[in-house]
Amino acid sequence: MEYVEDVVIVGAGIAGLSIALGLHRIGLRGLVLESSDRLRVTGYAITTWTNAWKALDALGIGDYLRQQHAQIQGHWSHHSPDVIYGTGEMVLVGCDGVNSVVAKWLGLQKPAFTGRSAIRGLAEFPDGHGYKPELLQYSGKGFRSGFLPCNDKTIYWFLTYSQSSQYKDMEDDPAKMKQFVLSKLQKVPKEVINALEKTELGAFISAPLRFRVPWNVLWGDICKGGVCVAGDALHPMTPDIGQGGCSALEDGVTLARCLGEALMGKPKEGEEEYDMIKRGLKKYAKERRWRGFELITTAYVLGFMQQSDGVVMNFLRDKCFSGLMAGMYLKRADFDCGKLYSP
């Protein structure tokens, strides 16, 4: 039988694949297009906060993934829906990342450079590392660093720093990156230094930190006709609250839910199928505007506070704002994108 895909998804990243899975669970067919001949890798790990687990549960894979990862500690019935074939209308979803072509077509502004960059790496311990399942963070003048176990044999770490012309040559040289990171973390515990030393040079990744100006998400065109964007194509943000991957999962569930409700619900009087699609996408855009706005803004503000060069800001960060910042992390993670219901 010949069929037409209901939804074409550009990009096989977290947002694109979660949208495809969400659509599959409610009985809509999606086609994922990816320009790369292999899985795209721009980092080593994502932090899955409470909101991400709610999205993963909605997608039906939460329980499986809970068994596959280390749970970080700290103080602060089977159904196979029938596929709906050949609706005659098509939805295009841009999940093509921070340099999104689809976002550009929609008229969204190019993401702005924050003046900061990040170096990331993954340390491997074949015989086990023995580290506690805790997130360790260190802040200094113009930098912030963190270390956390992914499982009992790997540790993910990062260092964000204020960009300068003197660091330009370093970003293409893993050996220089390693020395730079070690120079910033001279006063941290030896266990942390050991993780850096265990990281192979080929595992050092450097990238500038960019974000979409928040009011562009609030007032720009997230969708137009049958076209919309999700994930980093919609709301690229700095990694300071660990919500980039989480919000992409939220996008996937929300878009699948909104499209499913529009396409499989009862049409309004005189409403054509294309109108139903537009109604679903408008609902998706409405739900994701403020969420994207608050995540981008919170990440930027917390990144500025934690990585400040100023003496006054550093004092306030260490003595006054630590509880406030912890609360902002938890508040942004306290979000439920909803559930998916199979037909």
Task: Describe what this molecule looks like in 3D.
The structure is a single chain. By secondary structure, the protein is of the alpha/beta class. It has 2 domains: 7-111 and 212-333, FAD/NAD(P)-binding domain (3-Layer(bba) Sandwich), CATH 3.50.50.60; 114-209, D-Amino Acid Oxidase, Chain A, domain 2 (2-Layer Sandwich), CATH 3.30.9. Helices cover 39% and strands 17% of the residues. The protein contains 11 helices and 10 strands. The chain has helices at residues 14-26, 50-59, 62-66, 101-106, 174-184, 190-197, 214-219, 244-264, 273-306, 311-319, 322-333; strands spanning 7-10, 30-33, 91-94, 112-124, 136-140, 143-149, 154-162, 205-211, 223-224, 227-229. A 5-stranded mixed β-sheet has the order 2-1-3-10-9. The protein has a 5-stranded antiparallel β-sheet with strand order 5-6-7-4-8, with helices on both faces. A hairpin with a 4-residue loop joins strand 6 and strand 7. The longest helix is centred in the C-terminal third of the chain and has 34 residues, at 273-306. The model is unreliable at 74-88 (pLDDT under 50).
Q: Which fold name fills CATH's third level, the topology of the largest domain?
A: FAD/NAD(P)-binding domain
Give average pLDDT, whole number: 85
- The CATH class assignment of the largest domain is Alpha Beta
Query: Structural class, from helix and strand content?
Result: alpha/beta
Amount of helix: 25-40%
- Quickly give the CATH architecture of the largest domain: 3-Layer(bba) Sandwich
User: What is the CA–CA distance across the termini?
Assistant: 22 Å
Strand content: 15-25%
| Helix segment tally | 11
| CATH level 4 superfamily of the largest domain | FAD/NAD(P)-binding domain
For the sheet with most strands, the description reads: 5 strands, mixed
Quaternary structure annotation: single chain
**Spatial ordering of strands, largest sheet:** 2-1-3-10-9
- The structural domain count equals 2
Rg (CA only): 21 Å
Number of strands: 10
Low-confidence stretches: 74-88
Order of helices and strands: EHEHHEHEEEEHHEHEEHHHH
Silhouette: globular
Pfam families: FAD_binding_3
GO molecular function, one term: monooxygenase activity
Domain FAD-binding: 6-71, 92-269
Organism: Cinnamomum micranthum f. kanehirae
